[in-house]
Amino acid sequence: MSTLSHSRRPRSAARFAILLISALALIVTGFSAGSAQAAGYVHSCATSAKRGQATCFALRRTDISEPSALKADAIAPNATPSGLSPASLQSAYALPSSTNGSGQTVGIVDAYNDPNAEADLAVYRTQYGLPACTTANGCFKKVSQTGSTTSLPANNSGWAGEIALDVEMVSAICPNCKILLVEATSASIANLSTAENEAVTLGAKFVSNSWGATESSSYKSYDTSFNHSGVAITASSGDDGYGAAWPATVPTLTAVGGTSLTSSTTATRGWTETAWSGAGSGCSSVETKPSYQSSVTTGCSKRAEADVSAVANPNTGVAVYQTYGASGWTVYGGTSVASPIIASVYALAGPVASTVIGPSLAYAHPSSLFDVTSGSNGSCSTKVLCTAGTGWDGPTGLGTPNGIGAF
């Protein structure tokens, strides 16, 4: 009896140790639905924004080691940066990026200044064989929220990651487009809304916003900044899973959710997509239901998000070159990736008619999208708001681009 008793103790201890190690591994490597934070990547911007302040939705991978040739900040044709490339994104979404977009300007609204934005953009575009986009050749322009090219906001390493991601995603999807970067003085809703209006004033017909805040009725007075005739505006749905975010719930813009995008040798498309567990979605408590959503079942009596989606999972993220706040090539995810992608798809499709309201074209042409039918971003009382399925759903909206027909 004594021998049997002693033999069981080590087995129990070993079993406990295995269970403990497994649990720790899940904590380190995984994340629950509805949570965007996990070991292996960090939020580029502070997540504890004060009332009246927004945060950016960029998520930067910290667990990827690039080849030494790439770390040297030099172009390395024989070395490939980690993360999805422009060619991969164009393939996944069947986009006419090489032929369309000339003459179009995509506006990007962010907070603070990235002093290396143009230099980093040059490295990114050279690496992937994209045409130069510089201030000198008229392709790239960076201004403050008042339009100044010399009096720019304070530098901020966190928002610099967002800025690098945004300008490089526009480059990836619409390399023939011009890029207008408008930097708000701070991350306040007031300043970002002022920057939004400035982007339109300076000629952007497509404007991306990869930032947001928990929805509040106090922000509704700023809705007019996202309502400009003939301008397609996109906003990220957020990275915290189920729960409405502003300005994504503003009815006159396109709310962009997020997916996990993986290459596949068996899928006819060559790619598979599922809803990303961190993608924001929800039912607004303050914004009225837009007429275009009457054509789908949203389970929401007011404005529901998202409308469409694109890749956002950091584990299937995109390559980004950033030297202010990072040390070169890295991988980013978050719905911050998806918003500039969709804004650029709008640019590939050409000017939006003044009669078009928000994403109404997509709701009229859902067959021109890849329907994402699996995955979830959490639990909710109305399943369609947090679980992907056939047709419209909260995390992925109507789906992801299949060419430009829905835009």
Protein model, in words:
It contains eight helices and 19 strands. The chain has helices at 2-29, 68-71, 86-92, 117-127, 157-173, 189-201, 335-349, 360-364; strands spanning 41-43, 55-56, 59-61, 105-111, 140-144, 178-184, 206-209, 211-214, 232-236, 245-246, 254-263, 271-275, 282-288, 302-305, 308-311, 318-322, 328-333, 369-370, 400-401. Helix 3 crosses helix 5, helix 4 packs parallel to helix 5 and helix 5 (157-173) packs parallel to helix 7 (335-349). It has a single domain (41-401), classed as Rossmann fold (3-Layer(aba) Sandwich). Strands 4, 5, 6, 7, 9, 11, 12 and 15 form an eight-stranded mixed sheet that branches. It has a four-stranded antiparallel sheet with strand order 1-3-17-16. Strand 11 (254-263) and strand 12 (271-275) form a beta hairpin. The chain has 407 residues and is α/β, with parallel strands linked by helices.
State the main characteristics.
single chain, 407 residues, Rossmann fold, 4-stranded antiparallel beta sheet, 25% helix, 21% strand
CATH fold field value = Rossmann fold
Largest beta-sheet characterization: 8 strands, mixed
Radius of gyration: 21 Å
Distance between the termini: 76 Å
Question: What is this structure's SSE topology?
Answer:
Layout: H1 2-29, E1 41-43, E2 55-56, E3 59-61, H2 68-71, H3 86-92, E4 105-111, H4 117-127, E5 140-144, H5 157-173, E6 178-184, H6 189-201, E7 206-209, E8 211-214, E9 232-236, E10 245-246, E11 254-263, E12 271-275, E13 282-288, E14 302-305, E15 308-311, E16 318-322, E17 328-333, H7 335-349, H8 360-364, E18 369-370, E19 400-401
Parallel strand pairs: 4-6, 4-7, 5-6, 7-9, 9-11, 11-15
Antiparallel strand pairs: 1-3, 2-8, 3-17, 8-10, 11-12, 13-14, 16-17, 18-19
Helix pairs in contact: 3-5, 4-5, 5-7
